[in-house]
Amino acid sequence: MGPPESLTAAVEPLSGREQTVLSYLPTMLTTAEIASEMFVSVNTVKTHLKSIYRKLDVARRRDAVRRARALHLL
């Protein structure tokens, strides 16, 4: 793996709402609880999660948190 700068350049930027959802991922909140905190539907959160996972090239919440921390997004 190369330096963090090259990793960041390879990642498509997250939208503001995706960044907000990402900030909740290290917590113990469920998807429904995140939706409630953000005043959006569960489906909206799930859509943001799919996009975050795609952009970070991960398949699970734990992996997304780990990758986001490595990229200094969290």
Automatic annotation (TrEMBL):
Alphabetized UniProt keyword annotations: DNA-binding, Transcription, Transcription regulation
Protein transport is among the record's keywords: no
Annotated GO MF terms: DNA binding
Pfam families reported for this sequence: GerE
Superkingdom of source: Bacteria
Signal peptide (UniProt feature, chain positions): none
HTH luxR-type domain mapped to chain residues: 7-72
Residue ranges that the Swiss-Prot or TrEMBL entry lists as coiled coil: none
InterPro entries per record: Sig_transdc_resp-reg_C-effctor, Tscrpt_reg_LuxR_C, WH-like_DNA-bd_sf
Keyword Transcription: yes
GO biological process: one example: regulation of DNA-templated transcription
Protein name: HTH luxR-type domain-containing protein
Species of the source: Candidatus Protofrankia californiensis
